[in-house]
């Protein structure tokens, strides 16, 4: 199976640069996996496709304002630091720009000295280990000085940082948003519960590896990045009850899907658990947990296009993407949504 098997042609003007004023006004393309039938709807109509007894699984991870703009010392050259992973004791694994000028020993300053840092190590992949120096609470300093780490294909500045958070985001730790959830409003989630659909929460902290292109020709040779995920006892019980009663498990986003497929037992049941996952789902994968998926439109040749192709079939997915391009849907993080069932 070749990476090029998952290519589709996307006009650049269809890449959404800003979120819509109202979250649930996005368009929704529904795809029946068995028949290939498609419908063009709006996201607030997702309620029509969910049934009493289903369980909606949401990723409650919250995006850190992890992009810091500062200067190198001495000399004052500009530097950009992107926090990737908390290593403890004030040390973070980071991406830096310019990478060559942020070697171990380099001193950095942000917010006119409100936050300073020292590069203390370099990894083989080019990422740096940075020791931060500050007074007070690091997350509060980040909220003040940091910017949202928007994907590279979004060129416009985000006016309201909360629009890159889901309305149910709770646990700080992601370097990118679980974007399928951006379409939900509080009111829509209330309607979901009123219809008799359970809502379960998992946590998967999204890494920037989400945007890492597949550079190998043979799909099976690609190595996924690792991400940390958590399932509570309450969620495990809810999922087990749903399956036992014959309801569907509907994942919101590929992060929820990857968490459930990583943590499910061989028989598809669940236990309270946390783990690092590097699961790579591509065609041929046998799903243990998920019955339906709400997701955005993904980049050509990406691991996420491969995941949805594993679930709904490559030909059906590529046909749906072709239809979405024809109908001028908005693509990627701030774009429109799909429901695969």
Describe the structure.
The protein is of the alpha/beta class and 341 residues long. The protein folds into 2 domains: 3-63 and 160-340, QueA-like, CATH 3.40.1780.10; 67-145, QueA-like (Thrombin, subunit H), CATH 2.40.10. It contains 6 helices and 17 strands. A 9-stranded mixed β-sheet has the order 2-1-17-16-14-3-12-13-15. The chain has a 6-stranded antiparallel β-barrel with strand order 5-6-7-10-9-8. Strand 1 and strand 2 form a beta hairpin. Helix 5 crosses helix 6 (314-326). The longest helix has 13 residues, at 314-326.
Give me the secondary-structure topology.
Layout: E1 27-31, E2 38-42, E3 55-59, E4 61-63, E5 67-73, E6 78-88, E7 91-97, E8 107-110, E9 115-122, E10 128-133, H1 138-145, E11 171-174, H2 186-194, E12 198-204, E13 227-231, H3 233-244, E14 249-252, H4 254-263, E15 273-277, E16 292-296, H5 303-312, H6 314-326, E17 337-340
Parallel strand pairs: 1-17, 3-12, 3-14, 4-11, 14-16
Antiparallel strand pairs: 1-2, 5-6, 5-8, 6-7, 7-10, 8-9, 9-10, 12-13, 13-15, 16-17
Helix pairs in contact: 5-6
């Amino acid at each position: 199976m070749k990476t090029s098997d998952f290519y589709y042609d996307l006009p650049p003007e269809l890449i959404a640069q800003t979120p819509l004023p109202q979250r649930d006004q996005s368009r929704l393309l529904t795809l029946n996996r068995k028949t290939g039938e498609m419908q063009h709807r709006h996201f607030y109509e997702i309620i029509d496709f969910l049934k009493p007894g289903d369980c909606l699984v949401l990723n409650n991870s919250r995006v850190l304002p992890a992009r810091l703009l500062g200067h190198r010392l001495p000399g004052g050259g500009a530097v950009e630091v992107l926090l990737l992973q908390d290593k403890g004791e004030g040390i973070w694994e980071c991406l830096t720009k310019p990478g060559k000028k942020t070697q171990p020993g380099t001193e950095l300053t942000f917010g006119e000295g409100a936050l300073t840092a020292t590069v203390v190590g370099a990894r083989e992949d080019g990422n740096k280990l940075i020791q931060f120096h500050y007074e007070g609470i690091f997350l509060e300093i980040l909220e003040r000085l940091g910017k949202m780490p928007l994907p590279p294909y979004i060129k416009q500045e985000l006016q309201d940082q909360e629009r890159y958070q889901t309305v149910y985001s709770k646990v700080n730790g992601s370097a990118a948003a679980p974007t399928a959830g951006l379409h939900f409003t509080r009111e829509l989630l209330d309607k979901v519960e009123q219809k008799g659909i359970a809502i379960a929460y998992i946590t998967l902290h999204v890494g920037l590896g989400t945007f890492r292109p597949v550079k190998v020709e043979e799909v099976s040779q690609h190595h996924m990045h690792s991400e940390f995920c958590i399932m509570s006892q309450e969620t495990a019980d809810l999922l087990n009850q749903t399956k036992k009663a014959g309801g569907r498990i509907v994942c919101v986003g590929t992060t929820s899907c990857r968490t459930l497929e990583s943590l499910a037992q061989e028989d598809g049941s669940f236990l309270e658990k946390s783990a690092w996952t590097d699961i790579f789902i591509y065609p041929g994968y046998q799903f243990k947990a998920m019955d339906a998926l709400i997701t955005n439109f993904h980049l050509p040749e990406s691991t996420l296009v491969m995941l949805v192709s594993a679930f709904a079939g490559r030909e059906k997915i590529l046909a749906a993407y072709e239809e979405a391009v024809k109908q001028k849907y908005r693509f990627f993080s701030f774009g429109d949504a799909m429901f695969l069932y």
